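Notes from hallway chat w/ T.B., transcribed later so I don't forget. T.B. wanted the structure written out for a chain they're using in a teaching module, and asked if we could keep both sequence and structure tokens in one place. Agreed to drop them here.
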Amino acid sequence: MVRLAANLSLMFGDLPFLDRFAAAAEAGFRAVEFMFPYGETKEAVAAQLADHGLELALFNMPAGAWAEGERGIGAHPDRVAEFREGASLALDYARQLGCKRLHLMAGKTGGLDQAACRETLIDNIRFAADLVAGDGIDILVEPINTRVDIPGYFYDTTAAAMRVIEEAARPNVRLQYDVYHMQIMEGHLARTIERLLPAIGHVQIADNPGRGEPGTGEINYPFLLGHLDRLGYDGFVGCEYIPVNGTIEGLAWAAPYLQSVEG
């Protein structure tokens, strides 16, 4: 059964953040995800989850100066102390919010020594994985496209991300597979998902081009979501897309999956 999670950083964007939980539940979602919770107290976010019967699928560890264009610091050799402080903050929130998946963002590393970046990233992944292991939390690594969204990001293919995961050698480090990013970078979505399924800890979706909701671009989502279901994937599918004409207006594609969750 496909389990959708509304991404509250991108969906219901006409509402204040804490009001988006109620909107997601009313629309039929039983889980949510978001990029960062740190602008709110963990108690306030936990109350929204509890009040609306929502499970939190995923959020990101602190990722540097986001408003200034940074997209993670996990691979930055001069930011190790900051990364590790952020990892502890993320764990504090995850415990309060009952979240079992944290996305570790490597960051943009253009102009830096790539060997040093790789060594730093592996060390930081191991640190974070060991830190959260006792709480049953997975650290997720996500390849992100460098052609449209984040030029210079440290890894942009599943092969590159899997090499990092294998080198980190921690059982609670898994792959975050974003269909939108991987359609841009490598295609072959169904076969890649099938091959990497044992390593995948979370899936995210958006259509291409434009990063809109399923049905606005070239990706055959009815087939692909059915394929995930047939393969036995039992994780969440995060709706990390930018609604083209409003969140509610663009949810027709999701109706069969939301109804199946409610049933």
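Follow-up for T.B.: The CA atoms of residues 183 and 189 lie 7 Å apart. Might be a good example for the class.
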